[in-house]
Automatic annotation (TrEMBL):
Name of protein: Large ribosomal subunit protein uL1
GO biological process, one term: regulation of translation
Name of one Pfam family that matches: Ribosomal_L1
Family: Belongs to the universal ribosomal protein uL1 family.
Subunit field text: Part of the 50S ribosomal subunit.
Protein origin, superkingdom: Bacteria
Its biological purpose: Protein L1 is also a translational repressor protein, it controls the translation of the L11 operon by binding to its mRNA.
Any Gene Ontology CC annotation: large ribosomal subunit
Record PROSITE patterns: RIBOSOMAL_L1
Keyword presence, Nucleotide-binding: no
Sorted UniProt keywords: Repressor, Ribonucleoprotein, Ribosomal protein, RNA-binding, rRNA-binding, Translation regulation, tRNA-binding
UniProt-recorded Gene Ontology molecular function terms: rRNA binding; structural constituent of ribosome; tRNA binding
Length: 235
């Protein structure tokens, strides 16, 4: 077991770590447990009742959070011709075709998200080994491979979050910053969980949302009652 500092231990004492709280209360407690001097990111971990080794049980998607993420997102757009001007006008931080692919090959990775037009994917695929492990590879399922490059760039700049269940069946996603306060984080969480529920694979059996935990960057995790989240999404 890793050793935790005094501030972490004190934060844990403020609530019952074994209890799963209703969604609003869980978010509030997670924010109150934040103790770092910087504006921590709030994250959620959702354990799903799926087996990701089967393709028909893979859960992957994206959602534009109503309040964004509270940070500047640098977007690279792989496109050519008139699509370059469209991407630049939408706010892309880096735009290009072969030249941008070569930059990445040479080691440049000063961006947080990437989008590409379908005609560029063969070339972007050549740097897949660089982009893939960093979660930067454009993907049609998350809307980042499209000829509507302007809209894709704008959505990412506004706080669009991509997510994918891992090998253990857990989905991790950011919800914003502690400074957002409980209501905005709750709104963002509603949007995310609603999207995850909508993406439930037909092949998934049993309980789909098995557990939900909210935590800040440095703070302890607070369990959220997964069986009651639906009523807060519909509220």
């Amino acid at each position: 077991m890793p050793k935790h500092g005094k501030k972490f231990r004190n934060a844990v004492k403020a609530y019952d770590a074994a209890t799963a709280y209703e969604m609003p209360e869980g978010v509030k407690l997670a924010l109150e447990a934040s103790y770092a001097k910087f504006d921590e990111t709030v994250d959620v971990a959702i354990k799903l009742g799926v087996d990701p080794k089967y393709s028909d049980q893979m859960v992957r998607g994206a959602v534009t959070l109503p309040h964004g993420l509270g940070k500047e997102i640098r977007v690279a757009a792989f496109c050519q011709g008139d699509k370059e001007a469209e991407a630049k006008e939408a706010g892309a931080d880096a735009v290009g075709g072969d030249d941008l692919v070569q930059q990445v090959k040479d080691g440049w990775l000063e961006f947080d998200k990437a989008v590409a037009t379908p005609d560029m994917m063969a070339k972007v695929g050549l740097i897949g080994r660089v982009l893939g492990p960093r979660g930067l590879m454009p993907n049609a399922k998350t809307g980042t491979v499209t000829f509507d490059i302007g809209t894709a760039v704008k959505e990412l700049k506004a706080g669009k979050v991509e997510f994918k269940v891992d090998k253990a069946g857990i989905l991790h996603a950011p919800l914003g910053k502690v400074s957002f306060g409980p209501e905005k984080i709750l709104d963002n969480m509603r949007a995310l969980v609603d999207t995850v529920i909508r993406l439930k694979p037909s092949a998934a059996k049993g309980t789909y949302l098995q557990s939900i935990t909210v935590a800040t960057t440095m703070g302890p995790g607070v369990k959220v009652e997964s069986s009651t989240v639906q009523k807060y999404i519909e509220a």
